Amino acid sequence: MRQAAVCRVLAIMGSGETSPTMVTVHRAIVARLADHPGAVLLETPYRFQENASGISAKAKKYFADSVGLDVTPLAGTRPPAGAGGENGGAGAVRSAGWVFAGPGSPTYALAQWRDSPVGDALRDRVAAAPGATVLASAAAVTIGVAALPVYEIYKAGAAPHWVDGLDLLGALGLRVTLIPHYDNAEGGTHDTRYCYLGERRLSLLERELPAGAAVLGVDEHTAAVFDLAAETVEVSGRGGVTVRRRGVSMVLPAGTLVPLTALRDLVSKGIPPGAGGPATAGAGHDAGAGHGASGAVEGAPGTGHGAGAPARATARSQAADRAGETPLALPDIVAAVQRRFDAAERGRDAAAMVAAIIDLEAAIHAWSADTDEDQGTEQARAVLRSLVTRLGKAAQDGLGDPRDRLRPAVEPLLALRARLRREGSFPAADAIRDALTAAGLRLRDNADGTQWQLDPTGQPPTPTRSPDR
């Protein structure tokens, strides 16, 4: 009887790890496990927060409802001084079939995991142990040779600097710093790519990386899935994975499957001349700005060599084509619903307006399990309230064409005016015209008769005094 292949998977997610966008990726990873005797959720990155239990409850519900996985939350923090044995959850981390860690503070997680039993257990899982290990957002930041203290720089104003990482990827021959949220665009008018660093600060920090190290960036709602038994790397989700070295970047778009050796070569030997593109500085970027050529690596489907804007556009278009297979991120859903609602309002389609509101409410509910603080649910709720208000106003004013209500009164008056003009009774015809204009109608005479419409401003225009002759 053929023995089932041992599952050894490391998945690195850029964001959205407990959102609808990553459900398919999580299910695919769990499906690789012949069985999963234990599923562990490491609370460490957010353990210091007052709402830690609430975050764990939301994550536990997400994995149960969306992935069919019963997870056990573990503190995973450094054992108390003088404690013996593998406490702090290290034993559970070693024995679990599936281990997950995600949002929170990278530096807090590092302080707990560095030179600790849990950190050693995570390192052993990546190096040789069977099972699936999923590290996302803050937890993903910790796994490189150098780590980015995101909050200290972006929120507290510390000078850009690196701190020592766990270097879990060193066991795979990858000397990198891992940057999630790589294509973040929340800044709008200012550059928040590269996990809120922006190009200016990343360019400065890149010079301070340890010798031989490169940047490995994972876009939001995207996963780099390492099959450690087959030694392959697959990019799944909505964006791409970027290798950046000395300011030159190469993107592996969603759908790319490459040998791990190819990724090692990009990191250690650098991007071949002509195969990458320079990073793009500045704000006003789109989803993919700052990326170089798309996946110019042997084994990457639908990709090619070349630098500059055409290659970046190719990467974005390929990711966009595959985005249809992945649920939209919440801000994208909100924008789409707003467009639908606007079109329905213009078309006076009450049922379509209601359907748009219901779909937005359902999306907000689906995203409520996301433990990421920047998921956009508050903004989505604000839009939902505004759409409900607009629907209420439409119900009050009526969605029917107001011309239908006015036609029985207006058209007989226009017929009378036409007869008066034919008979030469111009003062009387003028009076009818002025009365209709004052009531908010616009009249236009042509060879086919008089056309009329409501003034779109809702304000009665100043009556014209030209004679109706």
Would you mind describing this structure in some detail?
By secondary structure, the protein is of the alpha/beta class. It folds into 3 domains: 8-323, Class I glutamine amidotransferase (GATase) domain (Rossmann fold), CATH 3.40.50.880; 330-397; 402-454, no CATH class. The protein has 16 helices and 18 strands. The strands form 4 sheets. The chain has an 8-stranded mixed β-sheet, with helices on both faces. Strands 8, 9, 12, 13, 15 and 16 form a 6-stranded mixed β-sheet that branches. A two-stranded antiparallel ribbon has the order 6-7. α12 runs parallel beside α14 (377-397), α13 (350-367) packs antiparallel against α14 (377-397) and α15 (402-422) packs antiparallel against α16 (426-438).
Question: Which key features would you list for this structure?
Answer:
469 residues; Rossmann fold; 3 domains; six-stranded mixed sheet; 16 helices
Rg from C-alpha positions? 30 Å
Judging by the overall fold, what is the CATH architecture of the largest domain?
A: 3-Layer(aba) Sandwich
Question: What name does CATH use for the topology of the largest domain?
Answer: Rossmann fold
- Give the name of the CATH superfamily of the largest domain: Class I glutamine amidotransferase (GATase) domain
- Rounded mean pLDDT score: 83
How many helical elements? 16
Q: Under the CATH scheme, which class of the largest domain?
A: Alpha Beta
Q: What structural class results from the helix and strand content?
A: alpha/beta
DSSP, total strands: 18
